[in-house]
Amino acid sequence: MSSAATVRWGVLATGGIASAFTTELQKMPDAEVVAVASRTPERAKAFADRFNIPRAYGSGAELAADDDIDVVYVAGPHSAHRAAAGMCLEAGRAVLCEKSFTLNAPEAAELIGIARTHDRFLMEAMWMYCNPLIRRLAALVKDGAIGEVRTVQADFGLPGPFAADHRLRDPAQGGGALLDLGVYPVSFAHLLLGEPGTVQAHALLSPEGVDLNTGILLGWPDSGALATLSCSVTAGTPVIASVTGTEGRIDVPNGFFFPERFTLHRAGHAPEEVVAAADAPHDSLRHEAAEVMRCLRAGEKESPLVPLDGSLAVMRTLDAVRERIGVRYPQEG
Fold first, then answer.
1. How far apart are alpha carbons 321 and 178 in whole angstroms?
2. Of 31, 48, 123, 266, which residue has the fewest beta carbons closer than 10 angstroms?
3. pLDDT tens string 186-220
């Protein structure tokens, strides 16, 4: 693929995040959405009509078999990611797969194995990692701007309530706060500190057996760093983050995973506000899409911004949290 080539996208699923991502893709002159698939032809056609997409398929298999597609965006529930993304990779498509990457770490390892066996591009849709301000924050931390990291704090909670039949309360769809919302605070901590050595957690569970309100304490014994994280589908939390080091602190306001600004505090200095560029959309979906297309044009099989081993490590941490709080999905036996 040449550096100037238009990248042709297929979209697998037709929910809210698929709509948001398709909207952003259609603002990009070097991207074209050429096909969509859903569980029924009717849903696919309605989505195609809404976004003026040329082809609509009533199954993921039809989409995966479309040789006119360069990359498929997999946007269904966590429980469907392994099968859908694996099918697309085996059919020769590159894949951008929504988060949480899969239902659990073994599924993530299988998916990564398929991508590497078939020499295909694969990336988790952790758009936070592609956001310019998050990248700037991570670079400041890595460069020692706040000294050695001692604590990371982050939360993501929605007020609810969600009915018993909502997907967020459905164990079969990987429901609960952790995989849908907790993946952001956990991934934020991983970005700054890597995979933790210890995992502790406590949660309120629903009658269906998914987590509704979860607190997580991660530890890095070698450095002494700690991360205190939370996620909830019963409480609208501030959705903020902070990282504190031996020589300063960085605070990220509401919407920490798609920030417009953050504040750097250092001893002996006035607080420094770092603001997103006026022409850089802060929602990160376009940054994510741009990174996928950059990788495809460069012939890269994974993104250095969202490396596959990092996505696998996050899934291991999420698995450890679920083990501590007693959440197991039906597919896991």
1. 9
2. 266
3. 999 999 999 999 999 999 999 999 999 999 999 99
| Amino acid, single-letter form, for residue 148 | E
Q: What does the alpha-carbon distance between residue 256 and residue 264 come to, in Å, rounded to a whole number?
A: 14
Closest CA to 17 of 104, 118, 98: 98
d(CA 259, CA 283): 8
Hey, is 52 helix, strand or coil? coil
Do residues 197 and 329 touch, judged by C-beta distance below 8 A? no
Question: pLDDT tens-digit profile of 242-289?
Answer: 999 999 999 999 999 999 999 999 988 999 999 988 777 667 799 999
Nearest Cα neighbor of 229 from 146, 312, 151 is 151
d(CA 74, CA 301): 17
DSSP state of 269: S
Pairing outcome for strands 94-97 and 122-124: parallel
- The DSSP code sequence of 74-131 is E-S-HHHHHHHHHHHHHTT-EEEEPSSSSSSHHHHHHHHHHHHHTT--EEE--GGGG-
Q: Would you say 237 and 157 are in contact if contact means Cβ atoms under 8 Å apart?
A: yes
Structure tokens at 294: 């950059």
User: Cβ(295)–Cβ(302) under 8 Å?
Assistant: yes
Write out residues in the chain with pLDDT < 70, as ranges: 1-4, 281-282
Which two three-digit tokens encode residue 235? 């409480």
DSSP 166: S
Give the number of residues written for the chain. 333
Measured distance CA(333)–CA(330) in Å, rounded: 6
Please give the Cα distance from 322 to 310 (Å, whole number).
19
Q: E strands along the chain, which residues?
A: 7-12, 31-37, 55-57, 71-74, 94-97, 122-124, 149-157, 198-205, 211-220, 225-232, 241-245, 248-252, 261-266, 272-275
**Per DSSP, what are the bridge partners of residue 262?**
274
Q: Is 202 exposed, middle or buried (0-12, 13-18, 19+ CB in 10 A)?
A: middle
